[in-house]
Design goal:
CATH architecture: Roll
Structural class: mainly beta
Helix content: under 10%
Radius of gyration: 15 Å
Number of domains: 1
CATH class: Mainly Beta
Largest sheet: 9 strands, antiparallel
Order of helices and strands: EEEEEEHEEEEEH
Number of helices: 2
Low-confidence stretches: 137-146
CATH superfamily: BH3618-like
Mean pLDDT: 89
């Protein structure tokens, strides 16, 4: 299928690439169909592009890229809708945000994806993770993409 995006233009997406978030994402409950796109300029960065809202794309990263000891602490009941055979098979991503010249990660509410079943959900961790973990100031390589 072809989708139009304001950030990436027209993209050809296979049905097997669509990730369904049955509950949506906080603040974007109407966006339930997404595709995960790599960033050609920055291999650490990916984009979660909404299929229903062409202007909605979230910059996402693996939290361990910046917080090596990051551990997702949620109940197995919280991730049960994903239908994971093994919780270690989950793809965990966090949303990256830019505030002026600061870049932050939302470590409190990561996105958890069962890549095999193409299902995702946003969870809230049980521990004291920050909503805005500061990555750094004036990161040129991130500013170009984000």
């Amino acid at each position: 299928m072809k989708i139009f995006t304001t950030r990436f233009g027209v993209l050809s997406i296979g049905a097997d690439e669509v990730i369904h978030f049955p509950s949506g994402i906080v603040g974007l409950s109407a966006c339930r169909q997404w595709v995960l796109l790599g960033d050609g300029a920055n291999p650490s960065l990916a984009w979660l592009q909404s299929l229903t809202h062409p202007d909605v794309a979230l910059a996402v990263v693996n939290p361990r890229r910046f917080v090596p000891r990051y551990t997702l602490r949620v109940t197995s009941k919280a991730i049960a809708p994903l239908g994971l055979d093994d919780p270690r098979q989950a793809l965990v991503l966090v949303v990256l945000a830019r505030h002026d010249y600061e870049i932050t990660l939302n470590l409190k509410a990561p996105l958890v994806i069962n890549a095999k079943a193409r299902r995702g959900l946003q969870v809230v961790t049980h521990d004291d993770q920050p909503l805005q973990y500061l990555v750094g100031r004036s990161l040129q390589r991130w500013r170009q993409s984000a």
